[in-house]
Amino acid sequence: MFDTIIDPTVGPPADADRGRTALAVRPADLAGKRLGLLANTKRNAGAFLEEVAGLLESRYGAKAVITRTKPSIVHPAPPEIIEDLKGECDVVVVGVGDCGSCSASAVADGLQLEAAGIPSVVLVSDAFRVSADAMAALQGTPGYSYVTTPHPVASLTREGVHGRAEQALPELVALLTGHGDDA
Amino acid sequence: MSTVADPVADPVRYAREAIEHCYAQGWTDGLPVVPATAADVEEFLATTDLAPDAVVGEQGHLHRRVTVAQVAVNAIMAGCRPEYFPVVLAAWEALQGEPAAGGGAWQSTSGPAPLLVVNGPVRDRLGINYAGGVFGPGFRANATISRALGLVVRNGFGIKPQELEQATQGLPGRWSICLGENEELSPWEPLSVLGGLEAGTDAVSAMLIRTCEYVDNRHTESAESVLFDFADTLGRLGAYLGVRHSTGGLVLGPEHAQTLADAGYSRADVQQWLFEHAVRSRADVRAAGKAEPGSDPDDDTPLAMMPSPEDITVVVAGAANAAISMVFRPFGWASWSRRSVPVRWTTQEEHP
Questions:
Q1: Distance between A181 CA and the closest CA of chain B, angstroms
Q2: In 3D, which of A9, A17, A91 has the Cα closest to residue B33?
Q3: Contact between B164 and A8 using a beta-carbon 8 Å cutoff
Q4: H-helix or E-strand containing A65?
Q5: Are A126 and A153 spatial neighbours (Cβ–Cβ below 8 Å)?
Q6: What is the spatial distance between Cα B9 and Cα B19, in angstroms, rounded to a whole number?
Q7: How far lies A136's CA from each of A55, B152, B165, B317, in Å?
Q8: CA nearest B74: which of B92, B50, B95?
Q9: B314: which strand partners?
Q10: B319 three-class SS
Q11: Burial of B333: CB neighbours in 10 Å, binned 0-12, 13-18, 19+
Q12: Average pLDDT, integer, range B186-215
């Protein structure tokens, strides 16, 4: 009956749906694996990744080799950062998605790393699940799995951050080694 | 009481059903929209020389782009008249040109709103309010031009509240803040001149703001007393983000602007005074838990709360009936790009 009403959501015809991103092949374990960290500039993001790296080194035998910090908290990492990580790492941890836009862009980063063939895991604060999921769907990969940590993160002390890293560790390792849910 | 008529008997009943249809599709911001048809879109497109499929907005990280035709559809839905459309396009361009708007603003927890400022004769031609009650409501052009941009973000970029848009609280008046500058009662040059255009040009300037706070100061003739009052609000700790400065601007009521001008203050003088006086002690900043990590706990040198004089944008709008002004708070660390966008009328017609 209202077929003549124009749909305001229809954009340029070239903007077609994107295909699903296949996850990179997972290593069986992290022993001796070169670990990369992709941080944003959200308060405690760098500290969180450092704590995670420490635990992955001491308990799983990974070796942290490179940390890259994104120039923009909002946008996915630029190609040169992805290239750096691709060149030097076997696995990457991305985080922390702890704001409206950076939760979504962290998921986009996880997906672009997977597309580049690097097994990765994204840390998101649980207040931003909806935004992270919406970005995964927008990127053609609904249901993409990431690790959540309780909100807030920015106000935590270093000890608090360490505790969160401990909490997140089992799921994080499972997703990196392919023992978690398939995306 | 009138009888409820069947739509066939009373075609007006179709209007509500059509509006309900738009709600059901998820196309509205919560208020009713005007359903757009192809004929309506043609009418709007006739007011611009831009091609209907020209891309005028992009959120690369979301893989979303919007076209002129799509802006037209959303402008119709917002309640615009066709002759507003060139102003909507200029407002949209001005907004897209603000670095903050490309930087995740629409997804941000701070949930900012555009503040649009219109200069030039177009204000009177289209009935864009610049006098009493300038922040609205009650004026169709002001209300619908700003609303159109919000519908483009929602429908064009696909950024909806509680989905990709993660505003913690948002703010009253998001998508409804469009002011004409009261050039007639402003002692200074139009804002659009600071934005790089000649005086008298129809133009839109855009900023992103988090809120407005009034300053009511009507019992003094002292310019410095009024400025002191503004500086106090500009220096409010709640707006200070820590680590880096937040910023602030002023929509001066004409009376305050006149008081300042009468005392010999240019716009730049006002900015300089406010920059120098919008300061807080570092002890205050520490007391609010906003000290930089690792900063000296005994340091008590004053801290400027504004990044620079130029970043304190000053606009004049409202009625000359009370000495009231509004401090506004730009989003993030950004201020205004100081780039105004001219309204482009079609070549056939100089203006409506």
A1: 23
A2: A9
A3: no
A4: strand A63-69
A5: no
A6: 19
A7: 28, 22, 15, 44
A8: B92
A9: B250
A10: coil
A11: middle
A12: 97
User: Would you place residue B243 in the very low, low, confident or very high pLDDT band (cuts 50, 70, 90)?
Assistant: low
The 3-class SS string of B102-154 reads HCCHHHCCCCCEEEEEEECCHHHHHCCCCCCCCCCCCCHHHHHHHHHHHHHHH
DSSP H or E segment with residue B94: helix B85-96
Q: Exposed, middle or buried: residue B49 (CB in 10 Å: 0-12, 13-18, 19+)?
A: middle
* A105 contacts B61? CB cut-off 8 A: yes
Q: Which long-range contacts (CB under 8 A, 24 or more apart) does B268-272 make?
A: B268/B309, B270/B227, B270/B312, B270/B314, B271/B309, B271/B310, B271/B312, B271/B314, B272/B309
B281 touches chain A (CB under 8 A): no
- Please state, in angstroms and rounded to a whole number, the distance separating the CA atoms of residues B303 and B285: 9
ipTM metric: 0.89
pLDDT tens track for A64-119: 999 999 998 888 999 999 999 999 999 999 999 998 888 999 999 999 999 999 99
Shortest Cα distance from A65 to chain B (angstroms)?
27
Whether residue B255 contacts residue B322, with contact meaning beta carbons closer than 8 Å, is answered with: yes
Closest by CA position to B239, among listed B202, B213, B272, B265:
B213
Which of B:85-114 have CB within 8 Å of A? 103-104, 107-109
C-alpha closest to that of B134 among B317, B315, B326, B316: B317
Handedness of CA A137, A143, A144, A147 (dihedral sign): positive
Chain A residues in contact with B38 (beta carbon < 8 A): 4, 6
- SS3 call for B248: coil
Length of chain B: 352
Distance CA B323, CA B26 (A): 43
Q: How confident is the model over B257-314, as pLDDT tens digits?
A: 999 999 999 999 999 999 999 999 999 999 998 888 788 888 888 999 999 999 999 9
Tell me what percent of chain A is helix, strand and coil, each rounded to the nearest 5.
40, 15, 45
